[in-house]
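ok trying this again, last paste got cut off
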Amino acid sequence: MPLTFGPDILAPVTLDRRQGPHGEVVLRRRGDDFEIIANGCFLMDTSDGRSERLLIDAALDALPAGRTTPAVLIGGLGVGFSLARAAAEPRWGRIAVAEREQAIVDWHRDGPLAEISGAALADPRTVVLTTDLVTHLRTTTDRYDALCLDIDNGPDWTVTDDNGNLYSPAGLADCHARLTPGGVLAVWSAQPSEKFEQALRDAGFHGVRTEEVGVARGVPDVVHLAIRASR
């Protein structure tokens, strides 16, 4: 019999706990769902992947008509919903995933999360970059047609201080530089942010908009979308 905390609330079971370069990461199971905890802060779980899938779908839909085999960079492997969605879509070309926590990569390759991402990781289009997303955006010469970024709880609530660099003017400038003309920046957030929308405009993006996914309680999850000019 599983332990419970009150009616209908299953107690979490810790499956793995690692100390990485950016702090502690923990994989837990709660009933049928998995949870990732970073530095004691809930990051994500597998209970509802609608917004993570929207991150991929909305970016693809926003690309210019006729763009063939676009390359996408997924920032943050997480529980694998975004990667699985991208790999299930034959229109994508190269699918790169930047994940700085080796523990999370291991949980997907050989651990419990392989049931979500196993087929996607085996897809020949997929490459996993075990690197910090912000550093990759700043230093790589690769270009992408879409950046689908979900490395935190959003621009207004970061788990680690250095993640805030992604949402800074310098971080958004790096995103802009890494996109091909007409490319799409999609950023997941646990809540809408008018301040971040304005920061995207200030960084030279246009077509800035926010798509929402309603949740049972509280503010909706959102995907912020922005387009690099085609010229």
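PB: full thing came through this time. The CA atoms of residues 3 and 61 lie 44 Å apart.
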